[in-house]
Amino acid sequence: xxxxxxxxxxxxxxxxxxxxxxxxxxxxxxxxxxxxxxxxxxxxxxxxxxxxxxxxxxxxxxxxxxxxxxxxxxxxxxxxxxxxxxxxxxxxxxxxxxxxxxxxxxxxxxxxxxxxxxxxxxxxxxxxxxxxxxxxxxxxxxxxxxxxxxxxxxxxxxxxxxxxxxxxxxxxxxxxxxxxxxxxxxxxxxxxxxxxxxxxxxxxxxxxxxxxxxxxxxxxxxxxxxxxxxxxxxxxxxxxxxxxxxxxxxxxxxxxxxxxxxxxxxxxxxxxxxxxxxxxxxxxxxxxxxxxxxxxxxxxxxxxxxxxxxxxxxxxxxxxxxxxxxxxxxxxxxxxxxxxxxxxxxxxxxxxxxxxxxxxxxxxxxxxxxxxxxxxxxxxxxxxxxxxxxxxxxxxxxxxxxxxxxxxx
Length: 409
What we know:
By secondary structure, the protein is an alpha+beta fold. About 50% of the residues lie in helices and about 10% in strands. A five-stranded mixed β-sheet has the order 1-2-10-7-3, sandwiched between helices. A three-stranded antiparallel β-sheet has the order 4-14-11.
């Protein structure tokens, strides 16, 4: 098998995403020699790997020619069938005009005005978690003790989930997004791989019923009682809405915070620069998000015969948009493997582009900014205390362990 074909197959191998050197070597080879590559791997339905930034952007723009439905995420053929049987329809599964209408239900909760109102609360939470770091005695696993909990608290508070249920939601979101990782996934037979999703749906169905009987001033109530064409959302659609906000609003941000911490530790000159010049925070947050790229890829389906970068794509074929590759594209980013908090321009695609641009992008940026804004002035020293470990995944993920040693005031 040609080397470039072996490189393309890496995109359907969860373990490859836990080996950054191997992953990025494969993606660089694809960008250089076969930017639109056919991938046929046992256990998965075939797809085309799209690795150039310009091609990813072009496909994102053409949202009627390349649709999210029916395959928005790379999963095994078995998991594709299981999700279809359950009837999951989250925002990432929908296309216009349905997508536009359903997205609008939560849009105001993530608008700049709402984010400004949440700023003070997020600052309070950031202080609590930096205090928690200090109270560990100067050494901790930053991922499990800090990074997964801070954004979980933010998004669950926004939804209106009781704090007593936060541990359950953490467990379910990690099992759902970590289903390809031996450490994080459920220790169940393969035919029970969707149990975390089913359990999450059960939880949110009860929440929906509660908010419909007793509406409150939270996002869960807004979703539960929203009407489209005069009708409440179906049970599956409303629970799907909660599920995508809970998982996307938590796992992506926790991965960015932990990956950003690792990047700053491994690039101490950048850490010092940011500490000395806090006005660089906005740019630093963008570089952290590009560097980590917590959403590794999304899928699209060709609604008609198309051509991408000179390659004919038949109608009905799937395409994988590799954000991990696009965000290291040498044609777009000067020295893309350099972590640079002052990178300008920084046209990363970590939040997607076009009509499916991440609904919670503003919230994620604020959480990263507020956490670092609280930590850095109090930080006296920080270093790795062990080997960082990444999650095996083909969708959303980042570090699962980051042992650090530090001194905090």
